[in-house]
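Checklist before submission:
- one chain only
- standard amino acids only
- sequence pasted in full

Submission:
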Amino acid sequence: MSQSTDTHVSQLSVIDSLNNAPISFFHLRAAFTAGMGFFTDAYDLFIIGSALVYIKPEWHLSDTQIAFLGSISLIAAFLGAIVFGRLADVVGRKRIYGLEALLMVIGGLACAFAPSFAWLLVFRVILGIGIGGDYPMSAVLMSEYANVKKRGALTSLVFGMQGLGLAFGPVVALTLEASGLPPDSIWRIMLGIGALPPLAVLYLRRTMPESPRYKALVRGDVDDAAKDMAAYSTGQINARIEQKTKPSRIGLGQMLSNPKYLLLILGTGGAWFLNDYAFYGNAISTPEILKMLAPSSSAMTGSAWALIVFSIFAIPGYLASIFFMDAIGHRRLQWIGFAVMAAAFGAMGLVPGITHEVAPFLFLYGISFFFIEFGPNCTTFVMPSEVFPTSIRTTGHGMAAGIGKFGAFVGTFVFPFISAEGGIKGAMLFS
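Returned file contents:
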């Protein structure tokens, strides 16, 4: 057997061992470390809507300014996802993992001390770049650490932290709204708390090992990949390890000129755009939606209803994705989720009188959230981490996530204008 053949077998043996390695404490720690970024993403997703209730009268903001404040971090996330995704393929996952969390910490804390509308916009851009960068970094690292059998479940577990963040937002809002603090203090504390989750895992992210798949397949350093794998897995590498293999890289130009990869970007990114347009447009605007549903209700009542919806429908949806995604199949689950979402939004927009009845509306609103989570919100996150080759995996995921965040920006930006013209019915029909 030639040297090159031995090397090839050794490289495959590392990947095969990774694909069959049992789940260990390391994988759960990695899921927690990666998931706290999405906890922050979801917390901010809800809390900015609650904060705007207090910011709008204090700074006398127009509808356009409200739209920008609610959505500017999402267009920044578009940029962050693409930039961090490409960097992670070029210089490695480990070298930059944690920098996106640092941006979230800086942006979150700065928002709490923003002296004006313009500065708050700037700080939310910083926060958004960090949130966007977290998508390709955390998804791909978790996917590359995981074995084949549990890859979808582990990557969904990372994203499932979003559910806890969604529920934590109303808890914070309710607590602060009942505290009797001045409105200026309430919204600043709301935004500042978002810096704490990424701060808690900043050190853990900076000390995570490099992806063995990246080392073996992209850098060609099979020996080092085997050592890294041995540090956190009980899986065995059965073939002899050679010192180096020829690195396998696909350039950005090659990627963008290859119809196969372009279709993957358009397919994963297009589905993500549609999902985020509906999900972010509704989730960020939940306080406003509930206020339109019951105009005489207080901010605390709206936060309580939001907590009920997120706890009873959204979190179980995330859990269902974690346990059943791999069994059902990612594409099938995505189609099921989109179909039920469309039916729920259609019913909320077309059934006569439903927007005047709190309980039926909240039930359908909750069903839409369950099938967003048990469907495209999780599948659009997981699928790009699996379909691209290792050397362009974070680039591809970052592009798909960036397209998704652009959809989130559009949905969030246009929601105030659609709801102003068409009320809740119009907003639901255009979701």
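Reviewer check: The chain has one domain: 3-429.
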